[in-house]
């Protein structure tokens, strides 16, 4: 869900009646409309302005107007709802609080339940997400936003087959709805049904629906060996972008770059990747990140680790696959999850939410030591047990459940504190290859470090510095899975992985590409193929174009 509220949706919200609260644990009764909370003309005018500012992406100003409304009318549901949408993608905890208050103020409004459900989905809390979105559908069965939100939830929950009929129903209701038009091919692609996904994406392009995003998704469904007509079409779209077309430029440039890379026209491809990243306008605060890494290294000492050695839960259920994005984390998860006793849960944000709750991920926090000091043996045990229950929900009978959120490399200290017997697999790849692979993808705002080659190399150095620290204070705990070693000798390295998990070998792990289930990362095409070696030393294709990256990596660059 975008943090922009569709005008038609907003109009509906403003006329939606309120009814008495009902429990989500029971079937919702028929709505009994009654007068909603009093809303002044002044409030309505401010919220109309807030919606216009939101559409113009002037988000701080929109937030200020909503807060002015709440100062007069503390539980104004629409003001709370808009504030929730503003928080999505920036501050999920704040979004959750605002959406929950909106639901409390107007519990029979399906849009508010969709918002709350999507906020839960952002933090990988799938059960409450599905419950609230389903409740919205109980109230309004033909609500396209709710059908698509539920489809996205099932897709993220590794149940892509349940998502498909929801998107199909949404398309029957509104054949031009962007969420349905792009949601259905995304679900198909996650299940490996690339040809079918491509059909729907071409239809979206023909109907002029979310054209840049559709092209970017379309070119990911296959590898091109000869120039396709799509390339000329993408380049024409780029030429036609007006002054207000910059929003679509990153996706279109990356789409063109992907096709040109496939065609081995590397200089042209890199030119588009650079333009795409520059068009995104993202800046990363490297100095603040460096200070955060300094603080982690300073706080997590061998003495601290020894003093907390008895904390947490001794369960062997959790497996954390960590590393830089594009380092082989998806491939590693797929190999492990092909074992009958292992469940691959995808990228979960639960651990980061725990860390956020105790102040570990707030880079402006100058008192990390105090945050760690709040972790008592009882609190560690409680947090670990809650996390285990959360994992068990996904696969009650699995012996190991894999969370492959790459950036959990930042939280290895917390992992070892909560789960002293958890397995941690660190995926490492040739530094230049890894960085180039990040740079050429149209990453979201969560990866702003990858938008500039020099910044990307310096960020990689901080990642490497932190990983060296974790290895020093947790000797022998972290299994390093070298991407190039896995590519060179798949079976031998796969056997080492499964042995590290403490499980007997199963030949199914060699045919990871036949595994059922959803794959929702940029690697979804690659992991449906047998292992190939063309991605090793791929950076040499771009050597003359990436000197700033190589220089910033310094001694980590294996040239």
What does this protein look like?
By secondary structure, the chain is mainly alpha-helical. The protein folds into 2 domains: 1-141, Serine Threonine Protein Phosphatase 5, Tetratricopeptide repeat (Alpha Horseshoe); 286-556, Rossmann fold, CATH 3.40.50. Helices cover 56% and strands 4% of the residues. The chain is built from 27 helices and 5 strands. The chain starts with 6 loop residues before the first helix and ends in a 6-residue tail after the last helix.
| CATH architectural group of the largest domain | 3-Layer(aba) Sandwich
Looking at CATH, the homologous superfamily of the largest domain is: P-loop containing nucleotide triphosphate hydrolases
Question: How is the CATH topology of the largest domain named?
Answer: Rossmann fold
Number of strands: 5
Q: How many domains in all?
A: 2
Q: What structural class do the secondary elements suggest?
A: mainly alpha
Q: What's the CATH first level of the largest domain? A: Alpha Beta
**Whole-number radius of gyration?**
24 Å
For this structure, the quaternary state is single chain
Task: Name the poorly predicted regions.
Answer: 6-36
Question: What share of the residues does DSSP label as strand, in percent?
Answer: under 5%
The shape is globular
InterPro entries: P-loop_NTPase, TPR-like_helical_dom_sf, TPR_rpt, TPST-like
GO molecular function: protein-tyrosine sulfotransferase activity
Protein name: TPR repeat-containing protein
TPR repeats: 110-143, 144-177
């Amino acid at each position: 869900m975008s943090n922009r509220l569709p005008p038609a949706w907003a109009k509906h919200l403003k006329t939606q009646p309120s009814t008495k609260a009902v429990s989500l644990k029971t079937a919702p009764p028929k709505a009994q409309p009654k007068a909603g909370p009093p809303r002044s003309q002044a409030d309505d005018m401010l919220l109309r302005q807030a919606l216009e500012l939101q559409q113009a992406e002037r988000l701080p100003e929109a937030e200020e107007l909503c807060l002015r409304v709440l100062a007069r009318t503390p539980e104004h549901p629409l003001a709370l709802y808009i504030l929730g949408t503003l928080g999505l993608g920036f501050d999920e905890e704040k979004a959750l609080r605002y959406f929950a208050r909106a639901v409390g103020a107007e519990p029979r409004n399906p849009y508010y339940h969709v918002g709350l459900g999507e906020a839960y989905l952002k933090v990988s809390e799938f059960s409450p997400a599905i419950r609230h979105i389903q409740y919205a559908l109980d109230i309004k069965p033909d609500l396209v936003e709710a059908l698509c939100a539920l489809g996205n939830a099932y897709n993220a929950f590794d149940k892509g087959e349940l998502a498909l009929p929801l998107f199909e129903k949404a398309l029957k209701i509104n054949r031009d709805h962007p969420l349905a038009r792009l949601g259905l091919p995304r679900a198909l692609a996650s299940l490996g049904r690339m040809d079918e996904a491509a059909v729907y994406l071409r239809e979206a392009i023909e109907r002029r629906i979310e054209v840049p995003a559709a092209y970017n998704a379309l070119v990911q469904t296959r590898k091109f060996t000869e120039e396709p007509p799509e390339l000329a079409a993408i380049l024409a779209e780029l030429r036609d972008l007006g002054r207000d077309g910059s929003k679509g430029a990153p996706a279109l440039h990356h789409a063109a770059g992907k096709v040109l890379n496939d065609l081995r026209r590397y200089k042209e491809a890199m030119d588009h990747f650079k333009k795409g990243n520059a068009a995104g306008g993202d800046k990363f605060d490297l100095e603040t990140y460096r200070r955060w890494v300094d603080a982690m290294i300073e706080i997590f000492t061998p003495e601290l680790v020894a003093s907390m050695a008895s904390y947490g839960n001794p369960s062997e259920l959790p497996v954390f696959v960590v590393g830089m994005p594009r380092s082989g984390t998806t491939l590693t998860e797929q190999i492990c999850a092909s074992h009958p006793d292992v469940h691959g849960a995808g990228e979960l944000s639960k651990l980061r939410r725990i860390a956020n709750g105790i102040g570990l991920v707030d880079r402006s926090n100058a008192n990390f030591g105090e945050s760690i000091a709040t972790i008592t043996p009882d609190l560690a045990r409680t947090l670990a047990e809650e996390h285990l229950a959360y994992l068990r929900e996904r696969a009650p009978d699995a012996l190991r459940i894999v969370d492959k959120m790459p950036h959990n490399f930042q939280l290895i200290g917390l992992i070892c504190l909560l789960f002293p017997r958890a397995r941690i697999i660190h995926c490492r790849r040739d530094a230049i290859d890894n960085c180039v692979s990040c740079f050429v993808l149209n990453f979201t705002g969560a990866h702003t470090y990858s938008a500039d080659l020099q910044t990307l190399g310096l960020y990689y150095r901080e990642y490497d510095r932190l990983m060296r620290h974790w290895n020093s204070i947790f000797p022998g705990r972290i299994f390093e899975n070298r991407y190039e070693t896995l590519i060179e000798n798949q079976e031998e390295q796969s056997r080492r992985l499964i042995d590290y998990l403490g499980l007997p070998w199963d030949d199914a792990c060699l045919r990871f590409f036949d595994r059922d289930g959803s794959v929702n990362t940029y690697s979804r095409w690659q992991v449906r193929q047998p292992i190939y070696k063309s991605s090793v030393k791929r950076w040499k294709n771009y050597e003359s174009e990436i000197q700033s990256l190589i220089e910033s990596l310094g001694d980590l660059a294996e040239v």
